Amino acid sequence: MAPRRNTPTRQIPWYQNLWEHNAVGIAVSICILIWLLYPTKTDAFSHVYAQQQPIIDCGPDGPVKSVAIIGAGSAGASAAYYLNKFKNPCDRVNVTVFERSSYVGGRSITVNVYDDPTEPVELGASIFVEANKNLVSAIRELGLITTSRSSKELPGTLGVWDGLYWKFVSSESRWWTKAKLLWKYGLAPIRTQNTMKQAIGKFLKMYEEPHFPFRDLSQTAYDLGLTEATAATGEEFLVKKGIGSPFSTDIIQASTRVNYAQNLNKIHALESLVCMATDGAMQVQGGNWQIFDGMLKVAGAHVLLNTSVTSIDRRSDGTYAIDALSSNSAVQSTSYDAIILAAPLQYAGLNFQPDLPHPPQEIPYVNLHVTLFTSTSALDPQTFGLNANGKVPTTILTTISDSQHVHPDFFSISTLRTVHNSITGNREYLYKVFSPEPLKSEFFERVLLLSPDGSPITWRYDKLWQSYPYLPPRVTFEDIQLDKEGKVWYTSGIESFISSMETSSLMGMNVARLITDGWADDDSPLEKETLGGDAPQRVQAAEEL
To answer: Which residues form the Prenylcysteine lyase domain (predicted)?
Structure first.
């Protein structure tokens, strides 16, 4: 951002005469007219996807490219969206998206409480933040409405509980909460914010030249200095930065548990810091899945839901054929110039002919149980160590203390809002629980004040997610390009780096740019380096660290 210039001081403001001659209204009207006729993008990152192109007469016979994308989540939708933006103006790109589920959005999906479409609730990825520039840019272009909280959301507090004791309870006042944090933990919160902002600043350079587009995630992470954080656990890294217990275990670990179901001594430090980047948290009204649905529509992609790809075969002409099943019937095979695997390959059940020369490594994913339920009963204060009239925090995060032998059997309990049960006519609480195991009836009996009829649950929805990978320290990440010719691409390798809707979108955008750059190279009469060949030699970052 350019520094501000000092405007010379005048004894008589320049606008005084305008007011006196009633000209301000005319000036404002002209400005509005110019704005309407010549709209400009105010997004600081719009240069990435909205570079101005000269008007070109392409003619009716421009080249046609065909791309298959497997997966309609954040990465797949973003790949389609940015293929459409990055392609040569005269190229025509036919994008087919194969999605084995019945919906678009991947791990971003809503369900309707009581099967009432006026009461949607996020079952998967719930929020994104101001730093998520792809998502924020997309919602602006798509005209989606975001909110920081539901109009029906209950005002309340956040508490961190270790199974026996409250480690920290916030205030309804944001400023008073900050004061409480500083009073209890000293400078640790400030050091954490500074360290987090440094890491996010490095990460955001991945959207910009010369780092974007990147062919080798491992090399780019090293070049940006991010492998210092990925090479250590959150616990180890934070101690080096002067941030230790109890703040790290009380607050940061509560964040890693609710966001990634992992403790601070297991998860790598970069993901630990990402958990603390919460400024401007928001969600799309009606569901975040609308971002990805809108991306696919803008791209003009042909989306095949309830369709599972079974095999991908390389033809003699260098194109690829796909075999798929939809409702137990075969989908006619088509020739594709590029394939984008926009979902973890280990869960895709794909057969490649011939075998991939650079298949991604299979890695363990977290099994996260998400339980939504409604009840007329509030949370029982005495279960959480409060007196009978105590006020239980609206959101309960958990941590563990080494000195305790009792550990919470859940990662979080959130009282989201109140909902109207049209059958009973009651106003009820809507809860969301993250847990490592399915919830049994004993859990509800323990945490809720039982209603007089003894059956506190009026509606329930359970979901098991392979939500994100386990994130131990590492300095190398999966290849983006899986073949030698640059026609088979993979997005899920970024999940071991940072797992989020935004980073998946970033990788989808990155792959789209690499593909379109390859097309441009193919069309150029100049001899250029091809997309094939070996990836850049990786720096032995682990040894240097």
So the answer is: 169-522
C-beta of residue 108 within 8 angstroms of C-beta of residue 121? no
Q: Which residue has the higher pLDDT, 147 or 58?
A: 147
Q: Are 68 and 340 in contact (CB under 8 A)?
A: yes
Q: How many CB atoms lie within 10 A of CB 68?
A: 24
| Cβ burial, residue 313 (10 Å; 0-12/13-18/19+) | middle
pLDDT at 471 > cutoff 60:
yes
Task: For residue 85, give the H/E element and its range.
Answer: helix 74-86
Amino acid identity for residue 321 in this structure = A
Distance CA 252, CA 236 (A): 13
How many angstroms separate the CA atoms of 374 and 411, rounded?
Answer: 19
CA distances from 171 to 155, 180, 244, 380, 497 (A): 11, 8, 23, 20, 33
Can you read off the two tokens belonging to residue 106? 């991947």
Would you say 543 and 112 are in contact if contact means Cβ atoms under 8 Å apart? no
For 297, how many CA atoms within 13 A lie in the half-sphere containing its CB? 11
Counting Cβ atoms within 10 Å, is residue 539 exposed (0-12), middle (13-18) or buried (19+)? middle
- Tens digit of each residue's pLDDT (9 = 90 or more) over 38-89: 333 334 344 444 444 455 667 667 678 999 999 999 999 999 999 999 998 8
Pairwise CA distance, residues 360 & 357, whole Å: 10
In total, the chain counts a number of residues equal to: 545
Maximum Cα–Cα distance across the chain:
81
| Domain 64-105+285-363+474-524+532-544 in CATH 3.40.50.720 | no
- Sorted by sequence, the CB contacts under 8 Å of residue 155 that are 6+ apart come out as 172, 394
Classify strands 307-314 and 351-353 as parallel, antiparallel or unpaired.
Answer: parallel
Predicted local confidence at residue 239, as pLDDT: 97
Number of H helices, E strands in the chain: 16, 21
User: Six-digit token pair at 509?
Assistant: 């955008």
Residues 6+ apart with CB under 8 A from 86: 49, 512, 513, 516, 517
For the record, the structure tokens of 466 come out as 């392979």
Kindly report, residue by residue over 236-287, the tens digit of the pLDDT.
999 999 999 999 999 999 999 999 999 999 999 999 999 999 888 899 999 9
CA–CA gap between residue 504 and residue 125 (Å, rounded): 12
Domain ranges of the chain: 64-105+285-363+474-524+532-544, 186-279
Listed residue (45, 224, 208) closest to 133, CA to CA: 45
Report the chain's C-alpha Rg in angstroms: 26
Are the beta carbons of 487 and 338 closer than 8 angstroms? Answer: yes
Local structure of 237: helix, strand or coil:
helix
Cα–Cα distance between 119 and 427 in angstroms, integer?
A: 13
SS3 sequence of 365-404:
EEEEEEEEEEECCCECHHHHCCCCCCCCCCEEEECCCCCC
Does residue 473 have a cis peptide bond before it, meaning omega lies within 30 degrees of 0? no
Find out whether 264 and 252 touch, Cβ atoms under 8 Å: yes
State pTM to two decimals: 0.85
